[in-house]
Amino acid sequence: MTHHRAVDVVRREENLRRWRTSEEGLELEPDPKARVEDEVEAGERRAEVRAALGELPAAQREALLLAYFGGYTQREVAALVGVPLGTVKTRMAAGMRKMKQALQDAGTEELPWTRQ
Length: 116
Fold this sequence. Notes:
- This protein has helices spanning about 1-20, 35-55, 60-70, 75-80, 85-105.
- Helix 2 (about 35-55) crosses helix 5 (about 85-105) and helix 4 (about 75-80) packs across helix 5.
- It is mainly α.
């Protein structure tokens, strides 16, 4: 039991470190071969994704950031935030639906990650 609690503490600390740097996950190094137009478009997409993430409830945003930018599985996210796996799955699904709608409302052309 002590081992499991120690692992939870380490994971929680790592989660906090990743959470603090999650914005960096949206920043990409520019591709030296990319055209200026492509760079501008990519920057606009990142801003739209950030805005859509900002509109989500905190629990949904946390689950999505941990999974997509933190690299955690849904099971690991559930352990990190201390909720059942089904709750994490529901939060992620609801968050993705809201992000899809927000990106479509922002006038973004249909992107690969917004298709059903």
